[in-house]
Amino acid sequence: MALMLWIFVSIAMFVFIALALRSKSKNQNPRRHFRRAGIAFVTGLALFFMSVAVPSEVEEPVDQTASADEDAEEVTEEATEEETEQESKEDSEEEEAAAEAEKEKEESIEAEKEASIEAAEKEKEESIEAEREKEESIEEASIEAEKEKEESIEAEKEASIEAKEESIEKAEAEKEKSIEEAEAKAEAEEEPVEEPVASKEGLIPVSLYRVVDGDTVNVIDDSGQELKLRLLLIDTPETVHPNKPVEPYGKEASARLTELLNAADQLYIEYDSGDKTDHYDRHLVYLYADDVSVHEVLLKEGLARVGYIYEQQRYLSEFRAAEQYAKDRGLGIWSIPGYVNEGGEGFNSEEPEPEPEPTSEPATSEPATSEPQETTEYFQNCTELKKVYPDGVASDHAAYQSKMDRDKDNWACE
């Protein structure tokens, strides 16, 4: 009987050991199985010693043996129940621990996931913020660069304007200085324009009849004869040419000559060597208002130029000096760039007609009818005509032109 119990207990012990090893391989707690195996081992060992200690000769009463068996069975059952309860408790604890561990694991995974999402979102936000800051920085840099560029352009523009103004001021200062020096030199070197005539020898007294233009005058000599004069070595802008418009400073030259001649008590003419008349039977002379050369006055005031130089050159150097005086100061005709035809004769408002050369032939070789009609007045348009004739002119007037009479009522520019 004891041997059977021992075998039974040994089998139970080995079963519990196997279960413990299995639990250990599955990463479970094997303690309860080891505990059961230990209990089985202790129980079997106790039964073994009990069976050995009792002599085989002593026969116990049947009821005592049965009682012992029952006690052993009760102990075994109690131990088994305790083990079962302990196992159930341990299983419950293990399940709770496993559930708690699983929960913790899930929470850890969830926390890691949330942390990863938060980190990704934070990184994304930081990246967006960095990109925005970068764009703002680039935009600010671009605005700053554009502002600096505009400031640089403005500074260069101001510097250019200042340099230009300085250059202009410097040029004006140099020009004024040059003019002052030229004036001082001219005043020191050249003779006054209104120089008295030292001697009236060779001068012929005449009286004014009328002024045709700035370089042409009609006078009456002592015998009462009318002389048509062409002033030597000067040329003034046209005012009465039938085929040319009134040229700039032409009227001013005529007005100034008229003023000089009307203010004089006596007029004189002087002939030079060479021809005394031209093809138009005009007398080639120098004209004086009292003791003043009208040639030099017109030249110095910029109302005439030196021109038509032939064999009569008695006062050419004096006339050149007077012309240079006006030219240096930009007076009159010299105030218009390119107006004076310095490479030839006349002025550049229109192509001038060449002045006829003096001839040694008698004045009667050309008919008197070749003289231009000095009574003709030419105006380029009504604006110019109205400056002289504000109410216009009739068809029998010397200044009348049919193109200015648009309504064909024989009255131009009314």
Automatic annotation (TrEMBL):
Q: Does the keyword Transferase apply?
A: no
Where does the record place Acidic residues bias?
Answer: 59-99, 348-358
Name the keywords, alphabetized. Answer: Endonuclease, Hydrolase, Nuclease
The protein's matches in PROSITE patterns, at most eight in alphabetical order, are given as:
TNASE_1, TNASE_3
What is any Pfam family matched here?
A: SNase
Record bears the keyword Lipid metabolism: no
Q: What class of enzyme is it?
A: hydrolase
From the UniProt entry, list the residue stretches annotated as the region Disordered: 59-199, 342-379
Q: What EC number(s) has UniProt assigned to this enzyme? A: 3.1.31.1
List the protein's name. Thermonuclease
